[in-house]
Amino acid sequence: MSAEPGTVRPGGRTARVRTAVLRAAGDVLAERGFAHLDLADVARRAEVGKTTVYRRWGSVTGLVADLLADMAEQSLPREETGSVLGDLRANASLVRWTLADARQGALFRAVIAAATCDERTAQALRRFYEVRVAEWAPCVEQGVARGELPPGTDAKAVVRAVSAPLYYELLTTGTAPDTPAAERAAQAAYAAAVAGVYVS
């Protein structure tokens, strides 16, 4: 079976082309939204051949899927502070920073909007969050091992509980969450976890 378009990651010129194309695609999404994402325009912006883009990614949704995979890989690793609350605060701070960033925040809004009407984009977005949640889940698991949280706590559910209100604020108000919002999200998820809300 052949690989999905855009998922082969050799080095050299091919890697440089991929980097340039994904950067251009992200720029278009942030500036104009999913509806205006066009492979020919992306090729022009990336200064690569249109045929190369069509052959490698095949479609706009293939390009978005690869962009999300790349973003998941490039996201900052988890920060371990020695306590569950500290780790959840670090996670909330990273999510807040991402959503407040002029390019990243606009890009996420565009991709989330596209995911509501395009199944392949929705699948790619789910994979992105699976990677990011799995990156931070060990912080909660370590908290369980230290006795900070009840045994059986669903680590991934706790991590999702931190970011959910921050994304909701962005999507419902159009305004990126601020630092107090990130602190509230971390505190609320932690309090719920301590109370056993996330015990499976």
From TrEMBL:
**Does Cell membrane show up as a keyword for this record?**
no
GO MF annotation: an example: DNA-binding transcription factor activity
Key words of the record: DNA-binding, Transcription, Transcription regulation
HTH tetR-type domain residues: 15-75
InterPro entries registered for this protein in UniProt: Homeodomain-like_sf (IPR009057), HTH-type_TetR-like_transc_reg (IPR050109), HTH_TetR (IPR001647), Tet_transcr_reg_TetR-rel_C_sf (IPR036271), TetR_C (IPR011075)
Keyword hit for Cell division: no
Q: Which residues bind DNA?
A: 38-57
This protein's superkingdom? Bacteria
Coiled-coil stretches: none
User: Know the name of this protein?
Assistant: TetR family transcriptional regulator
